[in-house]
Amino acid sequence: MENAATKRKLTMPLAIAAVVVALLVGFLVGGVADIGKRLFGTADPESVVTSSLQSMRAQNRLVPFVARFVSVTSSRQEKFGLAAERTLILPGTVRYELDLAKIERDDLDWDAATKTLTVRLPEIEIAGPEVDLKAAREYGSGGILSALSDADNALDDANRGLAVVDLRKQAAAATPMRLAREAARQAVERSFAMPLSAAGIGDVKVVARFASDPNDDPSYLDRSATYNEAIEEARRRRAGEKTQ
Questions:
Q1: 99-133 as b/e: b if 16+ CB within 10 A
Q2: pTM score
Q3: CB burial of residue 33 (10 Å; 0-12, 13-18, 19+)
Q4: From residue 149, how far is each of 78, 146, 157, 167, 189 by CA, in Å?
């Protein structure tokens, strides 16, 4: 995941900006009938939230996080008393997507007393991997067995299939999923908070949560590791594994 930090720096601002622009446009267009109220009084938070949701759903999918992984797989074939083995090193990029169209009005809860909007999010979906064949490397030779059969081609095909499975497994690991979920939460929270602030509704708190998040302790958001902390944690773990 060496390039994940760079990709996230590029992807997150663009993703958030695209959603926010659409939300603001949708809010302005959808709120023309209520412009008098916004000019001479406080806008209705629930109307702003509903308009924001409609604009967000129209964006369909949000990509809050992108990560790059490298898979190393080996396959072995034995035939005629001979053996052949091939190793494949294959990089791949994975996108973490949030289906905004799945967010329904019932997934939004506005607490007027605390000025808190709670948003229930659909689960993150993994798209890909998009493998980088130009950067792929294959090693090994079957010698006599390869000369007598198509062992090399069979082993290469097997390795490619294993590599794709391995890349998806890496993408679904705890650390990248946590980073993707946190990036999605932040993007959605900002996308709802900015139209509310633009409508003159101050001191608003937006809390985005996944259905699988704990319901009894919302303070877990304050304890979430930052992106850099999570990356450093993964590096320390890898360093520890190498010294064992």
A1: ebeebeeebbebeeeeeebebbbbebebebbebee
A2: 0.67
A3: exposed
A4: 11, 5, 14, 29, 58
For the chain, how many structural domains are there in total? 1
- What is the distance, to the nearest Å, from the Cα of residue 228 to the centroid of all Cα atoms in its chain? 16
Token reading at 160: 């490619």
Please check the confidence at residue 169 and state whether its pLDDT lies above 70: yes
> To which H or E segment does residue 63 belong?
strand 61-79
The CB density around residue 167, as the number of other CB atoms within 10 Å, is 25
Q: Residue 240 — left, alpha, or beta (φ > 0 → left; ψ -120 to 50 → alpha)? A: alpha
Q: Could you list the residue range(s) of the whole structural domain that residue 72 is in?
A: 4-243
Residue 34 has pLDDT above 60, yes or no: no
Read off the tokens for 106: 């019932």
